[in-house]
Amino acid sequence: MAARIPAEERQTNLVVALMATEIGLTKQQILSSVSGYRQRSNGGTGALDKMFERDKDELRALGIPIETLGDHADPNDLREARYRIPKAEYDLPVDIEFTPAELAVLRLAGSVWSEESLSADAQAGVRKIRALGIDVDEPIIGFAPRITARDAAFAPLQDAIERSVVVVFDYLKPGEEAPRRRRVRPLALVEYEARWHVFGWDVDAAGDRMFLLTRIVGELTVTSDAFPAELREGAGERALASLEAVAAAHSALLEITPGTEAALRLGRRATPAPVQGILLPYVDLNILADELASYGPEVRVVEPGVLREAVLRRLHDAAALHAQGSLRRVVHDGRP
């Protein structure tokens, strides 16, 4: 029995396919080429037709303009209708103008979008469409984000999630001297506070766990030990809800110098404190300590005390390293 593709993944693959060609695709081409439909092609066309119609309705409800193109001679004849998402629907009005600075920001934002980050299933769907003799526009700009500065474990984890197989990696938690080996069923990759996490089922601990990708040590191994793809359904939502619950239970009281970079960046994620300063929710104390220490004198931690000590320890270590470097330069140059 073919692994079930989650609805959100199937709909994403459908959007990619419908954006890939200007002339559109017939329902038969979609059902035989797009991942999420083709795996169920042996189950009868009735159920597939209903699934496709439901997906169209849901995507249109989200504001995605799926066009239905009828026969040229009789537009009302939809027996061989073709479907597409016209890119022109996303074009800006001709009377909008941008300053050079605004264009620079837009180019920077647009540079992270590329077809390279499409899932393997989405790429396979586009290849199948091309094999049918249908022109495919490349790249699909403005839809698929490309993450250029990703952790080394990101790509193999993404592959393991798509194939629903167990991964093995060494994980180093703060305060531990050596990493511990983990066997995990990866269910979702989630970004939270500009950092990537993998959410999954820890096989040895027999429970859901969240792992920060930056704490994975060495190479991650993708095994052939498969697990039911159904376990991935809703995993991303559960992971984000878990992170948000942790952040809601932990907050730091900070005093920040107005008009500084710290005030700009931290103020977006914080709320005003009842008396003075801001309250900043956080998930990981050590990660927050690293960030706060990078702002130097722009931030003062009022509470909790353990966070204040962690930030001070990092500042003292940085000062000590700077002093050692200055001393080495003096000795090397031969100056007293």
Can you give me a brief rundown of this structure?
The chain is an alpha+beta fold and 336 residues long. The chain has 10 helices and 12 strands.
Main β-sheet description: 5 strands, antiparallel
Q: Which strand order does the major sheet show?
A: 7-6-5-4-8
What is the CA-based Rg, rounded?
A: 25 Å
Ends apart, CA distance between termini: 78 Å
Low-confidence stretches: 112-117, 138-149
Q: Structural class of the helices, strands and pairings?
A: alpha+beta
Mean pLDDT: 79
Q: Helix count? A: 10
Helix amount, in percent? 25-40%
3D shape: globular
Strand content: 15-25%
Kindly state the number of beta strands. 12
Total count of domains: 3
Q: How are helices and strands ordered from N to C?
A: HEHHEEHHHEEEEEHEHEEHEH
Task: Provide tags for this entry.
alpha+beta; 12 strands; SH3 type barrels; five-stranded antiparallel beta sheet
Topology:
Elements (H helix, E strand, L loop, with lengths): L6 H13 L5 E2 H7 L11 H17 L5 E3 L12 E3 L15 H11 L9 H12 L22 H10 L1 E7 L8 E13 L2 E8 L4 E6 L3 E11 L8 H15 L1 E6 L4 H7 L3 E2 L5 E4 L3 H10 L4 E5 L1 H29 L3
Antiparallel strand pairs: 1-3, 2-3, 4-5, 4-8, 5-6, 6-7, 9-11, 9-12, 10-11
Helix pairs in contact: 1-5, 9-10
